[in-house]
Amino acid sequence: MKILALHTLAFLHVHRRALLVFYLFFTGLVLAAIAPLFSSALAALRPITGHAAISTGGLVQFVVSPGGLLWLSATATLTAFLVILQQAGMTWIAASGGGREYRIAIATLWALAQRFKQLLTLTLLQLGGHALIAVPFLLAIVASYQWLISPHDIYYLKLERPPEVWWFLGISGVAALGIAVCNGWLYLRWALSVPLLLLERMGARDALRQSSHYVHGQRLPVMGALIAGLVGLALTPIAVTWLFQAAGGEILTSLPERMGVLMPVTLGLIALYTLFTLTAAFAGIAAYSMLTYSVYRQATGHHRHSTAQNLPRRASPLAWSAELLIIILAATQAWFVLQSFDHRDDVSITAHRGSAFKAPENTMSAIEQAIEDGADYIEVDIRMTADGVPVLWHDTDMRRVFGLSGRISDITLEQARARDAGSWFGPAFSDERIATLERVIETTRGRAHLYLDLKPAPETPDLTREVVHMLQRMDAVENTVIAAAEWRVLAEARQLEPSLKTSLLAQFIVGPLWEQDFDILGLRQNRVTPATVARTHRAGNELHVWTVNTPQAMSRFIDMGVDNIITDRPAMLAQLLQRRQALTDAELLVIKLRNWLR
């Protein structure tokens, strides 16, 4: 292991500039070539799915459809192929006899072009092998989901956690472990296939076969070295981020309260972070490629060299120019990031099902509490009873609230109001009854806006029409948001009342947003990034994030520039916004910098 580490560092030191120049050239070519391909792939979603983008509602149908499987396979193949191409290029440089960096990088790109077909074949064989191993485990997860989870409401399972949940998690855990072990072992067995194909001029199948032979012969040292390299590759960006989070806050809080000082220092910190991140990404990828090449040399005993022509005298200045380019890019990004910092906290508060931490969700108590807590919007879930009355109800069944297995659409409003809708939360709410949309409209008028999450079911196809007609009849259309997880619901609402604001609620979304007719994109919090916010705003949409219940996450999303935070704790968010208004410029910059680094 020690010898492999020394060889890896030696290769990295000797070829560092050639590797850097190749890394920049390769990244530039990929961006230039992949951007049109990615746009074409997204455009292909429309004939496959009927929509220009995929949201939560259409995800399962997309994944299991022939067109969806083809689209996902093509995307996975392209991603894996780019990874293999980059590793192959760095392996070729490591095997070169040295020389000037610029010509070596160009020669490497040409060598990859000459072996394009063989490397693509290798990629397809590897993906096929991994798929064959993973499919049985994935089928076990799908079967256990259909058997144990699908018959129940997800929210009921999340809160009550019956035995079915633990059985499903156990089966899924074993299957995931099986994938990690089996596919991980296959990855290690084939880890030397790239240098074998490239330097020994083998075919793809022979390279995979020989790689398995060599790795099997030196199983422990090879596995240990490669696993250590992968762990190091994963931990590098985490370490860089942690370092700058710790140092940046200390530096900014120690400076005088003058924007003329704070802004340049913040700009410098962001530029340094960008530079270190780019360097760490390059160093991690290059080091792992050098490690793989060192393992190849040790396992095979071959010291083959790739051929590289002598370079002109200007090669060294050109290599320096590549390093200068990275510094310029880091400074440019730092400037744009600093310009994006807004000292105003322009975000609305939406109470998720009312103040659901203080009162039973979707009840009048929760709504009154949310108004008292300072919510701008009250988000409630709307379903329909058997007699066609829109009521506040989230789950697909009545098990969690009423203790019944049927649906709310199976009983009338009178039957529903005869049951206790609050004791499941606490005995103090035993008198709580199911709330109607009509009563909620009257209660919130002039006090808060409504955010109606419509949940139509096959047995209640008229839900959207009834809700929109009620809003029109009660003069409550203005400032009301109609939300749903399905495109067709929003389209129907907009057709019935063009002035309604509509919100698509999604776990994630791909595809061009500007081709869809909605006003707001509501995303789960683990899917929201600064890039997502910027992309949504460019499309002319607002971005709302759900469900955010910690002050750290709230602060991070405020600084990302989201338009609305949906939370079970509106009072906490209102207090956070008040505290931020009282911060000094330096304190606010520290918070924004830390949130940007996360």
From TrEMBL:
Superkingdom per UniProt: Bacteria
Single GO BP term: lipid metabolic process
InterPro entries per the UniProt record, alphabetical: GlyceroP-diester-Pdiesterase_M, GP_PDE_dom, PLC-like_Pdiesterase_TIM-brl
GP-PDE domain span: 347-577
Transmembrane segment boundaries: 20-45, 119-146, 166-199, 220-245, 265-296, 317-338
Keywords per UniProt: Membrane, Transmembrane, Transmembrane helix
SUPFAM superfamilies according to UniProt: PLC-like phosphodiesterases
Keyword Acetylation carried by entry: no
Pfam families to which the protein is assigned, alphabetical: GDPD, GPDPase_memb
One GO MF term attached to the UniProt entry: phosphoric diester hydrolase activity
PANTHER family according to UniProt: GLYCEROPHOSPHODIESTER PHOSPHODIESTERASE, GLYCEROPHOSPHORYL DIESTER PHOSPHODIESTERASE
Protein name, as recorded: Glycerophosphoryl diester phosphodiesterase
